[in-house]
Specification:
The chain is mainly α and about 210 residues long. The protein has two domains: about 45 residues, no CATH class; about 160 residues, Butyryl-CoA Dehydrogenase, subunit A, domain 3, CATH 1.20.140. Helices cover about 55% and strands about 10% of the residues. The protein has seven helices and seven strands, in the order ββββαββααααβαα. Strands 6-5-7 form a three-stranded antiparallel sheet. A two-stranded antiparallel ribbon has the order 1-2. A two-stranded antiparallel sheet has the order 3-4. The longest helix is centred in the middle third of the chain and has 30 residues. The protein is elongated. Bound molecules: zinc ion. The site of zinc ion has 8 residues, from loops. This is Paraquat-inducible protein A.
C-alpha cells in the first residue's frame, strides 16, 4: 500500500463539477467539433463552441417568436349553453390588472412571459458576438449570470401543467377547445428544453473570459 505524499497540483479554475451528478473533472480546451461527457452519468460538459452557440441563439429567437404568439393568440375557447368566450393570456392578465388581483396578474405575467423572454434576450446578447468569433460585449458576464440565476423563476413549463390540470376539471362543466396559443406554449417548452441541452456553462464562461 502506498500513500501519496504530496497532493496532485490541480488548478481550481480548471476543475469542473458535473451539473447532474457532481463528479469532478479537469476541464480542457477541446479541438473543434469534439465534446466532453461526464464519465459517471454521460451529461455533456463541454460542447463544441461556435456551433452550439449558434444552436442556442437560434432556439432563443424561436422561443421569443413563439412567446409572442403564446401571449396574444387565443389560449382557449369555452362554450356552454350557447355562450362562447375566448381569451388570450394577455387578455386574462389585463382583466385582473385592476383591484386586489393586480399583484397576481403581475407575478404571472413576469414569471411565464417576462423572465423567459429576458433569459432568451440575455443568451442572445451573450452569445451573438462569441458565435461570430468576436470578443464578448460589455456586461456579457453579468447578463449570463442573471440568465442562469433567473432560471428557477421562469415558469412557462409549470404554467402549462397547471393549465392542463385546470382544463381537465373545466371540461366537465363546459366545452373547452384549445387555441393556437396553447400549442405555441407546448412547442415553447420543447424549444426551451432543446436550448438548455445545448447550453454548456463552462464553454460559455470560458468564451466570455477569453476576450
Ligand atoms: Zn455526471
Amino acid at each position: 500500500m502506498s500513500f501519496q505524499t504530496s497532493p496532485p497540483k490541480l488548478d481550481p479554475a480548471q476543475l469542473m463539477a458535473c451539473p447532474q451528478c457532481d463528479a469532478l473533472h479537469q476541464a480542457e480546451h477541446l479541438p473543434d467539433g469534439q465534446r466532453a461527457r461526464c464519465v459517471r452519468c454521460g451529461t455533456i460538459l463541454i460542447s463544441p463552441r461556435e456551433r452550439s452557440f449558434l444552436h442556442v441563439i437560434a432556439f432563443s429567437f424561436t422561443g421569443m417568436i413563439l412567446m409572442i404568439g403564446a401571449i396574444f393568440f387565443p389560449f382557449l375557447e369555452i362554450s356552454t349553453r350557447g355562450l362562447h368566450h375566448e381569451s388570450s393570456i394577455f387578455g386574462v392578465a389585463m382583466a385582473f390588472s385592476e383591484g386586489w388581483l393586480a399583484p397576481l396578474a403581475f407575478a404571472v405575467l413576469s414569471m411565464i412571459v417576462a423572465l423567459p423572454v429576458f433569459r432568451f434576450a440575455a443568451l442572445i446578447y451573450t452569445l451573438w458576438p462569441l458565435a461570430n468569433g468576436k470578443p464578448a460585449w460589455p456586461h456579457a458576464a453579468t447578463m449570463f449570470r442573471l440568465a442562469e440565476e433567473s432560471q428557477p423563476w421562469a415558469m412557462a413549463e409549470i404554467f402549462i401543467i397547471g393549465t392542463a390540470v385546470a382544463l381537465v376539471k373545466l371540461a366537465g362543466l363546459a366545452k373547452v377547445s384549445l387555441g393556437p396559443a396553447f400549442w405555441a406554449f407546448c412547442v415553447l417548452i420543447i424549444v426551451i428544453a432543446l436550448k438548455d441541452s445545448f447550453v454548456s456553462k463552462w464553454t460559455i464562461w470560458d468564451a466570455i473570459e477569453r476576450k
